[in-house]
Specification:
With 357 residues, this protein is mainly beta. The protein has helices at residues 69-74, 250-255; strands at 10-18, 24-31, 37-41, 46-53, 59-61, 82-83, 89-90, 94-97, 100-103, 112-113, 125-130, 135-143, 154-162, 167-176, 180-181, 185-186, 204-207, 211-213, 226-227, 239-240, 259-263, 272-278, 285-290, 294-298, 307-308, 314-315, 322-326, 341-342, 348-356. The chain has a single domain (1-357), classed as Beta-galactosidase, Chain A, domain 5 (Distorted Sandwich), CATH 2.70.98.10. 3% of the residues lie in helices and 39% in strands. A hairpin with a 5-residue loop joins strand 1 and strand 2 (24-31).
Amino acid sequence: MTLTPVEYSSITSKPFGATTDGQKVTQYTLANAHGACVSIINYGGTVTSLRVPDRNGRFDDVVFGFSKIGDYEQKSPYFGCIVGRYGNRIAKGTFKLEGKIYCLPVNNGPNSLHGGKGFDKVVWSATPVETKQGPALKLTYVSQDGEEGYPGKLSVTATYTFTNKNELKLVYRAKTDKPTIVNLTHHSYFNLAGHGSGDILGHVVTIHADKFTPVDKHQIPTGKISPVKGTPLDFRNPTAIGERINQKDEQLQISKGYDHNWIVDKPLGKLGMIAKVKEPKSGRVMEVLSTAPGMQFYTGNFLDGTLTGKGGKIYGFRNGFCLEPQHFPDSPNHKNFPSTVLRPGQTYKNTIIYRFL
């Protein structure tokens, strides 16, 4: 979908087909006063397009996506969606909560990934909203007790606001009627030179974290917390993604590149800057802020060129990256990690801002 810049904030919508079980899907486009815009479908709360200017004012779409709902249902490796009820991996698809062992779908080797048939695969209720910050879209979904093995009826809201500061602001909230675990995040694949424009190895990344959680051969945290100093995972100073990604480092070899959780340097639950990415040729800069204690940085290591996206673009090896602010992988099985348990009367919160400069 091609959009021309507009000089005012707006919310528009149009049909985006129907799921295989007949549910109608709608695409909403939020445009700010500067002509930048984001498109979202209520299937999976998925960002299908994000058009922002480069240093010369040229608009490009900087996220991966498809033009048909069937491709999101059948082919998508989580392009642009909400992941949950538990984003990231849980070892062997099991966790223990208040003395009871819960079993989840295993869909990633021996692990459960992103909630199984998770929040990315459901049609959310959507309500467009005008706010002082800019146009917004409020999505709601109720995950029933026992869905994909998780305890508790979980009521979730995800509010997307596109501000006049060229910020995509995501606010996740959830409540439960019995103890459960929750970890929600956003999973866009970015290429700041424009989607389908080649690899992202020249993007320069800064991550405000001096520690990370090393993983075993199944990409599950060992439980150890390690310093990034002296490793290829040290992005405390601006570093090109490709500078060290091919080093003979055990952590990089396990994941075929970067696919790790960084422990961000800020107080738990406080909104703060956690990462910055610059694409030198276009001059685009993206800052990432969140309230989450960690961030998964993934460099598209499992893309292989077999997916064709919007406009016939081919998505190849390391052609996109993800910055996913969240709780740590496999937290329910590690007592030394921040808790992901949500109890009745509490509200789960995660705020994420992707700011484009």
